[in-house]
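in:
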């Protein structure tokens, strides 16, 4: 039996504080396999609704503001974990497709994603983690996070 030597590890983060555990695990694995680590945050945007009517706002300006803040947080996280600036990415997309598309486009062979432990088998993985595990073409490691 041959153990896969990972070359490119993707740390998919939601930028919450408890997601640092995923980063620690990503760096441990990167050191073990002498692999590159990419850091990814998928910024999901949604239409704004009030009651049953859609509120028209300058969504482009809102997205730019959210993306700027996310990039600032990603750079701080990359610095904290000694990840190169060029390997820290923010994309605008749905979480599942953003992670899977990035993994495919950048030849990622291991995705690390946080999983919030909740009660019951149905909540073993969060919806994003479950979708990535079920659809990824590479290995996925779901790291249990504190609830």
């Amino acid at each position: 039996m041959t153990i896969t030597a990972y070359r490119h590890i993707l740390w998919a983060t939601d930028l919450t504080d408890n997601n640092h555990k995923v980063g620690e695990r990503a760096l441990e694995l990167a050191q073990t396999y002498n692999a590159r680590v990419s850091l990814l945050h998928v910024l999901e945007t949604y239409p704004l609704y009030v009651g049953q009517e859609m509120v028209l706002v300058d969504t482009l300006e809102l997205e730019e503001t959210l993306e700027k803040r996310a990039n600032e947080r990603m750079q701080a996280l990359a610095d904290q974990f000694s990840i190169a600036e060029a390997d820290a990415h923010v994309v605008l997309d749905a979480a599942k497709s953003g992670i899977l598309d990035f993994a495919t486009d950048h030849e990622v062979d291991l995705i690390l994603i946080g999983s919030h432990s909740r009660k019951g088998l149905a909540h073993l993985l969060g919806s994003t983690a479950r979708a990535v595990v079920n659809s990824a073409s590479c290995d996925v490691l779901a790291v249990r996070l504190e609830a």
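note: The chain has a mean pLDDT of 86.
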